[in-house]
Amino acid sequence: MSSPEEVKLPLASSLQQVVGALLFGADHPLSVEEIRGCLKNVAELDGAASETAALFAEASPREIGDAVESIAKELLRLGLGIEVTELNGGFRFQTQPSCGRWVRNLLKMDRPNNLSRPALETLAIIAYRQPIAKSEIESIRGVTVDHIVKALMELHLIRIVGRSELPGRPFLYGTTATFLNHFGLSSLKELNELDPTLQRSRPSERKAVHKKEKKAGKEEAADEVTLFAPRDTSHPAAAATDAVKEILGGDTPSNAEPVFDKEGEG
Amino acid sequence: MALDALLTDDYKVDLEVFEGPLDLLLYLIRREEVDIYDIPIERITAQYMAYLDVMRMLDLNIAGEFLVMAATLMMIKSRMLLPVESRAADEPSEEAWIDPRLDLVRQLVEYKKFKDAADRLLELETLQSEAFAFGGDKPVFEKDEADAGQALGDIGLFDLLTAFQEVLARAPMEPLGHLEPIRWSVPDKMEAIGAMVRDGHRLEFSKLFNPESHRNEVIVTFLALLELLRLRQIVIHQNAAFHEILILPVEDAAGEPLSPPVIGGGEHVES
């Protein structure tokens, strides 16, 4: 028997092949940067031994984006019931929603409840106007939203992203990565393009978080990949993580740990 | 109120109301098919008050905002009653007359936009919930987690109240001074509705009530329905806006009424 080293495996000859394989093999949505990092890694490890690996390592974000896009188009053309989708700035293969009925049956999964209308409306307000204080949400909806905001927090669809300069320094809420995943969105930019008129138009009286978000948005625009943008850094939740940690002292708002301790003792 | 006497065993339906006065106004504007920019304030105010009365009668947790809005509507209505000439004569040199409805309309239009955005979120959510990654692994949350205001399903509270109002209007009035013995209780009615739905699978809302049902019976039946909804023992469904409301057993709403029982009691499969 020959040892594995002696067997010479043929190497992939196109970037598209490798990108497709990575998307298939990954356990989470892959960003263009992650794909690029992997290509570079392999080239470094294999060094001069593999010309192909070195060549792939040269691929620009744009070329990788193009490869993903052409895989997506090809899948659509072939009608395999599979598609490429962009979730929170990463790409993944998923089954087409039109086949969901059967997949769900095979996996014995119940259809999940949709969020209620009041919850969706509250979420829409937060998504388009973030960072936003509860009082502002209430002035738009015309009714208190305590319960709903709490429920949305528990579902991890929204999170506290900072504090307002308004009297009492109320918490400001924004959406999370879970939100993007749940609604199949690539980024908040995609959401805003659905309803461009809903964004906060008046200059906001605040806020470092908000500024950061805008700056990141510009960087993204400068990047050439448009249809399949690289991992979206404009996510305010990500941008504001530090701010929240500072405010909450690293504790999660739900503060679950002490409860566990008690249970352990008793 | 008469209701207290009806609820023999102190049964109070504690249905959380997540909709506010703006929701009710938009609902009325849509149902009456009136122009949001030219609201017939008198008609809409009258209807608004009628809904408020029904909510009060049912002892729902009415938010204070409903009362504030009632006052606002009254104020607008009274201002609208001023004849245009006198308004112009009073302030001839002042800026042009400002429609007293303006602020309200602005608020309604703004909120309406977010309601439309919520429609699109619902589409996206539905679409994405039907897409599965390799091995079916997906970030779903548990059914009862998606809870905020879910009790009424895809129907708004005001649709239900409309249906209730219609039945109540048909119910014979009790003669003045006539005391009716208490014959109905919410728990009894809950059981009755539950049995009807289990046997008949689906039930039209109007079939819940006999044509000659006593007024009190109508109210108790409706309260029982709300309570069953809150406890999620039944679900309601409406095929299109302002259509007949259907009452279904919970399993039916899972969308797979014909499939055999799922192994493991319909739990999510660990993946």
What does this structure look like?
The complex is a heterodimer of chains A (266) and B (271). Chain A has 14 helices and 5 strands. Chain A has 266 residues and is mostly helical. Chain A has 2 domains: 86 residues, Winged helix-like DNA-binding domain superfamily/Winged helix DNA-binding domain (Arc Repressor Mutant, subunit A); 141 residues, Winged helix-like DNA-binding domain superfamily/Winged helix DNA-binding domain (Arc Repressor Mutant, subunit A, Orthogonal Bundle), CATH 1.10.10.10. Chain A has a 3-stranded antiparallel β-sheet with strand order 3-5-4. A two-stranded antiparallel sheet of chain A has the order 1-2. Chain A is elongated, with a radius of gyration of 22 Å. The N and C termini of chain A lie far apart (60 Å). Chain B has 271 residues and is mainly alpha-helical. Chain B folds into 2 domains: 132 residues, no CATH class; 101 residues, Structural maintenance of chromosome 1. Chain E (Arc Repressor Mutant, subunit A). In chain B, strands 1-3-2 form a 3-stranded antiparallel β-sheet. In chain B, β2 and β3 form a beta hairpin. The interface between A and B is large, with 60 and 60 residues.
What would the keywords be for this entry?
heterodimer; A: mainly alpha; Arc Repressor Mutant, subunit A; 2 domains; 3-stranded antiparallel beta sheet; 5 strands; disordered C terminus; B: 271 residues; mainly alpha; 10 helices; 50% helix; flat
Topology, pairings included?
The complex is a heterodimer of chains A (266) and B (271).
Chain A: H1 15-25, H2 32-46, H3 51-57, H4 61-78, E1 82-87, E2 90-95, H5 100-107, H6 117-129, E3 132-133, H7 134-141, H8 146-154, E4 158-163, E5 171-175, H9 177-182, H10 188-194, H11 208-222, H12 236-239, H13 241-248, H14 257-265
Antiparallel strand pairs in A: 1-2, 3-5, 4-5
Chain B: H1 2-6, H2 21-31, H3 41-57, H4 64-81, H5 84-90, H6 102-129, H7 157-170, H8 186-200, E1 203-204, H9 215-230, E2 234-238, E3 245-249, H10 250-253
Helix pairs in contact in B: 2-3, 3-4, 8-9
